[in-house]
Amino acid sequence: VNGVSTRTDLLGLMAAVADVAAALSDRARLQAMLDVEAALADVESARGIIPAAAAGAIRAAAHADGYSMAELAAGAAAAGNLAIPLVAALRARVATTDPSAATYVHWGATSQDVIDTALVLQLQAAGRLITGDLRRAEAAAAGHARRHATTVMAGRTWLQQAPPVTLGLKSAGWLASLSRARRRLEASLEDARALQFGGASGTLAALGGDGPAVARDLAAKLGLQAPPLPWHTHRDRLVALAAAFGIAAGTAGKIARDLALLSQTEVAEACDPPEAAGGSSTMPHKRNPVRAAIALTCATRAPGLVATMLAAMPQEHERGLGGWQAEWDVLPELVLVTAAGTRAAAAALEGLVVDAERMRRNLDRLGGLPMAEAVAMRLAPVLGRAEAHAALAEAARKATAEGRPFADVLAADPAIARVLDRQAIERLLSPGDYLGAAPAFIEEALADYDRDR
Amino acid sequence: VNGVSTRTDLLGLMAAVADVAAALSDRARLQAMLDVEAALADVESARGIIPAAAAGAIRAAAHADGYSMAELAAGAAAAGNLAIPLVAALRARVATTDPSAATYVHWGATSQDVIDTALVLQLQAAGRLITGDLRRAEAAAAGHARRHATTVMAGRTWLQQAPPVTLGLKSAGWLASLSRARRRLEASLEDARALQFGGASGTLAALGGDGPAVARDLAAKLGLQAPPLPWHTHRDRLVALAAAFGIAAGTAGKIARDLALLSQTEVAEACDPPEAAGGSSTMPHKRNPVRAAIALTCATRAPGLVATMLAAMPQEHERGLGGWQAEWDVLPELVLVTAAGTRAAAAALEGLVVDAERMRRNLDRLGGLPMAEAVAMRLAPVLGRAEAHAALAEAARKATAEGRPFADVLAADPAIARVLDRQAIERLLSPGDYLGAAPAFIEEALADYDRDR
Amino acid sequence: VNGVSTRTDLLGLMAAVADVAAALSDRARLQAMLDVEAALADVESARGIIPAAAAGAIRAAAHADGYSMAELAAGAAAAGNLAIPLVAALRARVATTDPSAATYVHWGATSQDVIDTALVLQLQAAGRLITGDLRRAEAAAAGHARRHATTVMAGRTWLQQAPPVTLGLKSAGWLASLSRARRRLEASLEDARALQFGGASGTLAALGGDGPAVARDLAAKLGLQAPPLPWHTHRDRLVALAAAFGIAAGTAGKIARDLALLSQTEVAEACDPPEAAGGSSTMPHKRNPVRAAIALTCATRAPGLVATMLAAMPQEHERGLGGWQAEWDVLPELVLVTAAGTRAAAAALEGLVVDAERMRRNLDRLGGLPMAEAVAMRLAPVLGRAEAHAALAEAARKATAEGRPFADVLAADPAIARVLDRQAIERLLSPGDYLGAAPAFIEEALADYDRDR
Amino acid sequence: VNGVSTRTDLLGLMAAVADVAAALSDRARLQAMLDVEAALADVESARGIIPAAAAGAIRAAAHADGYSMAELAAGAAAAGNLAIPLVAALRARVATTDPSAATYVHWGATSQDVIDTALVLQLQAAGRLITGDLRRAEAAAAGHARRHATTVMAGRTWLQQAPPVTLGLKSAGWLASLSRARRRLEASLEDARALQFGGASGTLAALGGDGPAVARDLAAKLGLQAPPLPWHTHRDRLVALAAAFGIAAGTAGKIARDLALLSQTEVAEACDPPEAAGGSSTMPHKRNPVRAAIALTCATRAPGLVATMLAAMPQEHERGLGGWQAEWDVLPELVLVTAAGTRAAAAALEGLVVDAERMRRNLDRLGGLPMAEAVAMRLAPVLGRAEAHAALAEAARKATAEGRPFADVLAADPAIARVLDRQAIERLLSPGDYLGAAPAFIEEALADYDRDR
């Protein structure tokens, strides 16, 4: 617009969230600010504070199309904020149809009232899109939790195989975390649905005794809440919202981490569908986990943005000098990053191609060793823990060194054989029989989800 | 203890929060872990999973005093976490009285179950201390809001004097932000009051079908909630809690920023009492705002710690490799920093020495210029906004250049004189008469506080 | 371009750095990538690896104007990076004039080679603009250091008046820090002037044995250095450069903090010139420190961006999955933020309106108390430190309580009077005579500057 | 010590860096501060500014053992910094042997002079230990680069197998990044080897005209450089050093990421030796990559700490209020984290158990598909790129779908067969023959290392 934009997302990370970007765009910001000015004129006119004709003229002029973004940007640079040139431009425009009405533009308000309230309106719109994506992701995770409740796969701790889990349990974990992220975000959005309206110093003195009533009317007209008092330099609601966005991005990142690891060539248990995976013209076999990469990218970027919102909190007296302004780009950027991450995770979960057979094959590679715990829990009460574990460790060592099945080695140990016969050992080493509470956990997560979707 | 501690707080920042430090200390961590082991044995014994005698022996051995922190730390370094050497030490100790009981120590649990649950217990204890400090700060701010409801002082935007506020309004703003910080922290503490219990891979497979019931009993015994499923690599509850701590620290920082600015030599409107201010032997006049400095220090440190918690979220599969471990020191550090900041802010508010006379004198320095808006609101409907503002700007210029009272210059302007006589101008320039909704805002903030204290 | 841009800088923070924004723009990125492709074809043709005609056709097609940013962005989103659709588009374009040449586009290179090298080229261009601004700021600070070498003003520690300094000394401190920031940035830019060229896995295997020679030629042609080996997942050079940018932003922020504090209504020792200060239509007296606010805004934003660059370092094997992609927007954003901050600081220093008379008046407000140290240093060797300080503290207390000049009270103390007569006391309390090494420090800083400008 | 320490490293992350922790300990801090006081007295006595006897008495009292850390910490909390109670305690102690000497303790200095200079001394000591660890890591990486120059393994991009590399090349990349991290750290340590000495306001006024000379002498005596002027609120040297630490931690983290991925059960190409890997009593087969986990933990923690150092830069006037104090704990913490990370990476590299046979086996799993590029580079000039790639993609699809060797399918394609016979295809698909510049890159990296070790 004015030659200083560096950001057309040529790199493509944000291509999937054009709707969120539109809600956060400068065009939307401009319109939201004009909406605030028009609503203010309306409620002031309804209370007889300004002439009804003025309100009509102001509302008529409050359409973003009539304004030059380039001129406004230049004006904002000179004045220190966007409201100053916008109010001037709105006044000029109103004056062309009703000169006396121009006097009543922005009546009793301060720049930050308009900038903050417009931001709040944009955040509500963008936030709803993100909670929608989280719900999509929840639905997909719930589907996997149901479908794969008994799809056995290796548990992995420290990136080493551990006792088995099921893909359903893993999905239930994703599901529950997504639901928590969404509920937290919904609560924070509600908490941050707060009108900013205080006038020059936060007293609404320019409106005499009418301030609180105008504030209430204005909030109602804009679909916002009227807080007990203005919050120009108390930014905690926005910071809490930022944290909720950051946590949603991190939640998507955790899922993406799992998916990226599962899609490794050597693991290959789950991957993006061919049409979504990044290909390589010189490596036709590759299925790059592009969606997981986007979600991990966003999870990498969110923490620094949340930290900046926190760092900007100690703002000076009645108007911040540096802190407030730092929020202007950082908060929308964080929302966009969160949107890209959560939507990528949703798409990845929805499109996930699962290779249950490969999961089982990977699990079998260690010949039963990850199930040693099952045997240990049976041996310990009989042999005592120390002796049981010594026997198991020796058997594991021998099985690995000699390349023999763990069951064979265990069955050949006389101390073990006294407690468990070959058949019992094999049953204990069967991954599908050592899933404990996994079905119950999946059920609980799904029940929780069903109550709230 | 083991030669690697670098942190004895010699620098003094944490001296005032020794109780919080104690709740977060390694000693408390050790005891909390032992409490978890003892409670686990109790509930398993009550369900007949382990012998009652074993549970008794385990509980008898679960006192931190019996363990060498140095040896445990060395063991933790080798094993990768503290639970491994602690469980071994507990087993050894139990074995001295009841060898067969040693088998049932830590029965069915995994290291992270014990480490996470102990952390949750510590966080609840430390968190309660901080919400207590926030309540102290709220009470002090409420006192100022009441006492100074009509104590007029300069509003300040961009660090420039703006229309007047009252110290009561400023205090009401502090109060409301403190209440929000405290409520958010209470809610996050409640949300994070979650047992961790999943066994090696999160299935509780070692307990067969008893897992969920044991989890419920264990949670109840420890005063925690039993979540639908384990959350070993889903850290959002802790991260949300971290954000709530960070916001509390930022809230304290905002108050401290205001107080530090008010205590400047050239402003001198409020300061720490002599006994609390930092002195200087070579500058006997100095009253260094030590409390504000501590709160600002903590507000500077919190964002990076919160960011680390967020950055650590994408943890691998069933056990994090780097992310989980990053939380170990970072979360307690953040809690301590928050405690120091909020307690310093509370003390600063409680002890605040207010110079109302100086406030008024500072406000009068500009000879009424900051009240220009009051005149403008009256002139604009009559003269039109443009003409009114031109007249005011010219009068302000003249008053500054010629060193004359603003009222004199205004009264001498014929255009203005047609609308307002000298007396009316003086009334408009009287700060105490231009406070708008300040009293109403204070009242609303106090009412909100009274409902919830 | 493609509907997802949210960033037109409507808020105006970046208006002053349109040249830097242009250097970092997506248009510039596209051209830089095409420059890399063209240079690669040239050097490969010169070595007989690809046909000369192919190189000519490729160079002819390497102009950004011929490409649709919207299509490329969409392609990047699908493929996971921008090079894939760009290379395809370049091939298609080359094929329209020389079908056989299309085969040799991007010959032997991988996407990251082109993306990273183009970024390096952009960073060099943008970085030079910023070092230019730092030099501007240095020149302005050096001017103040010279002009105001003896302009006495209050030293301020803990925001309390301390023994005097001069504006020249303060400026010398700014100067030295700006020079260090600029030198560090120059060194980091030089260090990061590194070609990326490694092919699919970093071995340049597709070029057989010619890889290193092609790399050397390509680096030379692009004005870059050829590092010993590719650095696809070793990002330290870029992170070190990011840190240098962040430190420059912080340096500008420190200066801005001082200027914002000096411009407070109650201090008013220095401010922006009227044409640059932000005004307020309803408060005609205000001179908002807009430049300082921008620099502080940027200093608030830089740390989170640097942290993200650091957090993205542990990239996977031969190509990062999330970490690399996080750099794409974050590093240009950091550069832009740094540019805005340093340029605002430069402008603020260049335009600074100094009120030396007010400096002196502010200093005199405490009636000599901040000079107590001067007296103490003379009394202590005679009376002993303890007695000297007790006498001074008592005198300070009395002067403040009784509103008497400090010199009077000191002279009236018999213990002090034995050591210092009234005239000596007054000389000691004269700020202009208690500047110690300030002139020498200024001289050293200016000499250092002169050596290097 | 004083009841507020929460940090005894019970969790074990820092156990391996007890020497670094000792260099950064509060005990070392105390002694460094006393060293500064003693050196100051010495040089002032040598210049006749204070009596020689006083200097002797001060030096005699400057041993940390004589002071109560608990009392000092309590004093620091009250005064706002540690130097105030320490100087008082030192004076009291000196007075017991030479009452008149007590007057000359800390003569002409300010608290920050002593605190900052002591910190600089500690950082030099700790920094040297870390550069030593980086050299260890370099030596280990160089060893692998040499030994495994021809040990072929899969290249991996996006965690998918790509054309082959060698472990030697991977090690050469680690080596070069470690060397750069070490050189950067050495340069930053040298840059930050700067005395702080400015007195109350940075003018050294208390020393009259002797300030600069005393500063030079003091720097020389302490092994530091005397900067052109004091830098109390210009913290860039320390921040640049912090960034260098952070980059070293990130470098270690990148290596750890690779090692953790290589040690996965399903990859198993390299791991910690049995004695160093974390074991599991219930899973005897596990080899948890404890060292990599520590390095990744530290890489996760460093960015937030560096960000805090940057965020603290805009410090007020002549003494920071919150920013300076934030550094006190954060910088030592960052150094310790870096030490733990780099030492863990060094140990991991030194002890690395490599399974070259498994590397080869993993590479062979895809039946030659990752070598498709080698074939493509040969076919493209003959068939044209488009046709060549279509043929390869179809062959890859067929090979995967039908489970046939890639070479078979390729040889069966008539278009390909016209260009390459079966033998040529097999040679092209041989990983060991498709390493391009890998040997040259390794050689260059080793040559660079040899020049500088």
Number of helices of chain A: 18
Number of strands of chain A: 4
Helical content band of chain A:
55-70%
Largest interface: A-B, 103 and 103 residues
Strand content of chain A: under 5%
Give, in spatial order, the strands making up the sheet with the most strands of chain A: 1-2
Tell me the overall shape of chain A.
Answer: elongated
Structural class, from secondary structure content of chain A?
mainly alpha
The H-and-E topology of chain A, N to C, reads as HHHHHHEEHHHEHHEHHHHHHH
What average pLDDT do the residues of chain A reach? 94
**Oligomerization category of the chains in this entry:** homotetramer
Q: Report the span from N to C terminus of chain A.
A: 42 Å
Low-pLDDT stretches of chain A: 1-6
The Rg value of chain A, from CA coordinates, equals 30 Å
Query: Largest beta sheet of chain A, briefly?
Result: 2 strands, antiparallel
Could you walk me through the main structural features you see in this protein, from its secondary elements to its overall organization?
- Four copies of one chain form a homotetramer.
- Chain A has helices at residues 18-24, 26-46, 52-61, 69-79, 83-97, 111-147, 167-191, 211-222, 236-262, 290-311, 323-351, 356-364, 372-383, 385-402, 406-412, 414-417, 422-428, 438-452; strands spanning 152-157, 160-166, 270-271, 353-354.
- The two termini of chain A are 42 Å apart.
- Chain A is mostly helical and 453 residues long.
- Chain A contains 18 helices and four strands.
- In chain A, strand 1 and strand 2 (160-166) form a beta hairpin.
- In chain A, the strands form two sheets. Chain A has a two-stranded antiparallel ribbon with strand order 1-2. A two-stranded antiparallel ribbon of chain A has the order 3-4.
- The radius of gyration of chain A is 30 Å and the shape is elongated.
- In chain A, helix 2 (26-46) packs across helix 8, helix 6 (111-147) packs parallel to helix 11 and helix 7 runs parallel beside helix 18.
- Residues 1-6 of chain A have low confidence and may be disordered.
- Chains in contact: A-B, A-C, A-D, B-C, B-D, C-D.
- The interface between A and B is large, with 103 and 103 residues.
